[in-house]
Amino acid sequence: MIRTLMLAAALLVGSVLPMHADADKRINVVTSFSILADFAKNVGGDRVQVSSLVGPNGDSHVYTPTPADVKAIGEAAVVIVNGWGFEGWLNRLAASARNSSRGGKITIVEATKNIPALKDNDPHDHDHGHHHAGEIDPHAWQSVENAKIYVQNIRDALIKADPEGATAYRANGDAYVARLDALDREVQAAVASIPKARRKVISSHDAFGYFASRYGIAFLSPQGVSTDSEPSARDVAAIIRQIKSEKIPAVFMENISDPRLMNRIASETGAKVGGTLYTDSLTDENGPAPTYIAMVRHNIKALTSALAD
User: Model confidence over 199-252: pLDDT tens digits?
Assistant: First the structure.
């Protein structure tokens, strides 16, 4: 009886150990913010352990790295970032990590590689002194077509870091891109249902340039492509005049911004408060935008509801 129990225990241990071994083989991936983390999880599947430096509802423009972040990227197999100045704190963080005990071996991948960049040329009638005309707009993920390029770049980075997982990464990437293709068609159909004259909104900061370029809704903002500066009284007054003159139907809050400014603009113009748009960050699992696809669907539903006749 004892020998039988020992044999059963040995078989049980043998069946469990490979599962732990597989878990231990997962490569450690660190992303700069939550949208990239979602992309990496979809491509990496169960071969990766993904964490994000800037968490749900966090503002990457004004984030302050912590000592734990230095340790995290120092221990990562690959660090995935947006680039284009989106993470203004990244160079200092990377320098600190390279000076750590790992001896400077940090692989940083910019997920925006091969995406045509838009520049903020300040096309509006008002003067945004803080816009820095000519500055690259880093919010390329707001076009679902660009999101597919993000996914391809992340796939290639994971294959390079973990060649044994190449087949899985390609299969996962292809499956996710198919879902993004369907999402892109969904957004285009939703925008087509909005009367052309009503495809204009105000948002908290200028994060929707790629969305506007892809789908044809005009976004105006009292802030530039970054949230690290406050709009001036002149900016706000110009926005209010423009809303009134162009009869812009709705203003939207963002999950990373202070809503007081947008509430003031809405109250002074009579424009409808269309709700919250998600721009630079996902929500936690209990929120309305815990994934990129959920974020895009939430945003387009909010836009179509506010802009419909």
Answer: 988 776 678 999 999 999 998 765 443 444 555 677 667 777 777 777 777 877
Six-digit token pair at 154? 């992340």
Instruction: Place 12 in a pLDDT band, splitting at 50, 70 and 90.
Output: very low
Query: Own/partner pairs for 33-37, CB < 8 Å, 24+ apart?
Result: 33/58, 33/60, 33/82, 33/87, 33/280, 33/281, 34/58, 34/281, 34/282, 35/141, 35/280, 35/281, 35/282, 35/292, 35/295, 36/80, 36/81, 36/82, 36/111, 36/150, 36/154
Q: Which CATH architecture has domain 18-176?
A: 3-Layer(aba) Sandwich (3.40)
Tell the CATH topology of 192-307. Answer: Rossmann fold (3.40.50)
Sign of the dihedral defined by the CA atoms of residues 19, 25, 30, 35, in that order: negative
Map out the domains of the chain as residue ranges. Answer: 18-176, 192-307
One fold for 18-176 and 192-307:
yes
